[in-house]
Design goal:
By secondary structure, the protein is mainly beta. It has one helix at residues 61-67; strands spanning 2-10, 23-29, 41-45, 54-59, 76-81. It has a single domain (2-81), classed as Beta Barrel (OB fold (Dihydrolipoamide Acetyltransferase, E2P)), CATH 2.40.50.220. It contains 1 helix and 5 strands. The mean pLDDT is 93.
């Protein structure tokens, strides 16, 4: 799991049938200071996140578990919206 910022949305009128009805968001991993630390990736939104929000993202097989659909071609899912983040560094 990692923290990311939602930086955009994706609209795809033609897609795999297992993705129909799912909201696709563009996310970018961030560090504890809110600075970008990696490449952007597409994640399915399971919590109603919006552009500009800080979110928690899971990748791999846990992502498909969240969706309860092992056939979905999904590698990342937004599982939480961060209200506040405090670190010791």
């Amino acid at each position: 799991m990692f923290v990311a910022k939602v930086i955009g949305t994706i609209v795809a009128t033609r897609k795999d049938e297992n993705l129909v009805g799912l909201k696709l968001m563009v996310t970018r991993p961030i560090d504890s200071q809110g600075q970008s630390i990696g490449q952007s990736l597409v994640a399915v939104d399971s919590v109603g996140a919006g552009v500009g929000e800080t979110v928690l993202v899971v990748r791999g097989s846990p992502a498909r578990t969240v969706l309860q659909n092992n056939r979905a071609p999904v590698d990342a899912v937004i599982v939480g919206i961060v209200d506040d983040m405090e670190t010791l560094d």
